[in-house]
Amino acid sequence: MSNNIVDEFNAYRSRMNEKLLEDNNKIIKRIFNLDTNAYMEGTLPKKTKELLGLGNSLVLRCDDCVRYHLEECHKLGISKEEAVEAMSISLLIGGTIVIPHLRRAFEFWEALEQKGS
After folding, report:
1. Sign of the CA dihedral running 15, 38, 86, 72
2. Is the CB of residue 76 less than 8 Å from the CB of residue 50?
3. What are the contacts of 68-77 at 24+ separation with CB within 8 A?
């Protein structure tokens, strides 16, 4: 497995976000702003919010969202054990259909660890 999946994901995400925002659509810009602000430090710590984002993304089966939140968790110093425990709750709630996304989440976490980001 190549740890390049982290770089490829981030490059694609960045490039496409720029394209989305270039259109200057008010609704898209407001959703992006709301998303950014929702994950800022608040009554709930950013770490808690990122774990919530990770868990919800896993249940909703959004691999891009799972990757994004895994990387944010990794940057915040959340341990693999903490991330796995959070994802195990998501697996319980979401059921076995979440397993393929859990596999990809483990693969991405390993790539983050190899990259050292």
Report:
1. positive
2. yes
3. 68/13, 70/105, 70/108, 70/109, 70/112, 71/6, 71/10, 71/108, 71/112, 71/117, 72/39, 73/47, 74/109, 74/112, 74/113, 74/117, 75/117, 76/46, 76/47, 76/50, 77/47
pLDDT digits (tens, 9 = 90+) for 68-82: 999 999 999 999 999
Q: How far lies 75's CA from each of 28, 92, 96, in Å?
A: 26, 26, 28
Distance CA 33, CA 26 (A): 10
0.90 exceeded by the pTM? yes
State the Cα–Cα distance between residues 70 and 91, nearest whole angstrom: 15
Range 4-115 classified under CATH 1.20.1290.10: yes
Which DSSP category does 39 fall into? Answer: T
Confidence of residue 1 (pLDDT cuts 50, 70, 90): very low
Task: Please report, for the chain, the start and end positions of each structural domain, with discontinuous segments joined by +.
Answer: 4-115
Q: Cα separation of 41 and 37, whole Å?
A: 9
